[in-house]
Amino acid sequence: MSASSLAARPFLSPERVAVSLMFLANGFLVGSWAPKIPEFALRLDLDESALGLMIMCFGIGSLCAMPLVGLVISRRGSRMPVLWLAAMAITSLPLVTLAPSIWTAAIALFLFGGMIGGMDVAMNANAVEVEKHLDRAIMSSCHGFWSLGGVAGATLGGLLIAYFGVLVHALLASLMIVVAVALAWPRLLADPPHAHLDDASQDRVSSPRPGLLTAGATVWLTGIICLIMMTPEGAVLDWGALYLRQELAASPALSGLAFGAFSAAMALMRFLGDLVRDRLGAVRTFRLSATLAMIGLGAAGLAPSAEWAVAGFAIAGLGLANTVPIAFSAAGNLPGLPQGVAISVVTFMGYSGLLFAPSVIGFVAEHTGFAPIYLALPVFVAIPLVFSRLMRHADRVAG
Fold first, then answer.
1. For 282-309, how does the pLDDT look when each residue is reduced to its tens digit (9 = 90+)?
2. Which of 60, 184, 253, 328, CA to CA, is 20 to 30 A from 129?
3. Distance CA 212, CA 335 (A)
4. DSSP, res 390
């Protein structure tokens, strides 16, 4: 597309604002959960292992909802799933806050995860349709708004819990989601049902041609890279506040900044990510980002105080911000494999790391503490560096 035709497209449109609001609301809900975790564990008398199982309920709910919502989108489009799931998510934090027992809390977290995971699939699908409608990229900024929501949810959540308690915090957070849904409802893009693979694409899947096996192996390896790179995000979201509270004697307000600082740095780099990648290329950007993430995670694990740990999480957020978007882009551009198949594999594997790895971390941390966990994560992040050349597909020129 020429520069003049791109300039003729509106940079901001009602549809873009609406889907960005949905990303913001989803991130806000996830960020609001982070500072609630210490009180949640204390109220139900949960140790690290039991809390890890509870967090796994959230992950199971998300992964169960993702394929179901994908089926609905293929038949009905993404607009109504986004709005209805966002509307149902309004009740999620109060349900988790008021759950009187371990079993009811597990059910509440399962539903919470289902609403968040299903909404995530639907709003990403809607963002893709808005990109087509505007003929301009918006996905990176949408994920930036998600990170901003995480910042607001974690930071305001810690302060509200410290001054007003968990119930008032849950109700006020829900009220903010009501406002976001009300503003987005009349403006969200009404897209048609998403078609399945065409006959030619199905032939390529059912009857592999030369090179397709290599593409298949590549997409699975790209999925593993996403799994590894999304694991630290889950580790900071679910355990960062508890690490600051238990091992670094942080206040409730300061502990909420663990994920807040991480998300703020990630949001900044996501808004700048396209520019950085255009200048440096996908491979160099990925390598620099992964290295920065390793430095930040190591600094958090070695931190002598909560403030230093927060700074380490911020550096890690700067590094991790662009790694997964680059991997998603590389998967979508793999030659010899249908785009939808590649992205679905990479997305599912990536979110598995985000949702389930924190549960494993909980079991390990019960015996080792959290500082060794954050020191071990850079070792795993080093693995994608070995295969970073795969990210060259993100720079592949169409046609």
1. 889 899 999 999 999 999 999 988 889 9
2. 60
3. 8
4. G
Q: What is the pLDDT of residues 246-281, one digit of tens each?
A: 888 888 778 878 878 887 888 888 888 777 877 888
CA distance 169 to 156: 9
Task: Please report, as a single letter, which amino acid is at residue 382.
Answer: A
342 and 220 Cβ atoms separated by less than 8 Å: no
Angle, in degrees to the nearest 10, between helices 257-280 and 282-302: 160
Compute the distance between CA of residue 326 and CA of residue 265 in angstroms, rounded to an integer. 17
Q: Structure tokens of 79? A: 């607009």
Q: How far is 25 from 167, CA to CA, in rounded Å?
A: 19
CA distances from 210 to 138, 198, 202, 333 (A): 35, 20, 16, 17
Cα–Cα distance for residue pair 340/374, rounded to 1 Å:
34
DSSP string of 29-42, one letter each residue? HHHHHGGGHHHHHH
The percent of residues above 70 in pLDDT, for the chain, comes to: 86
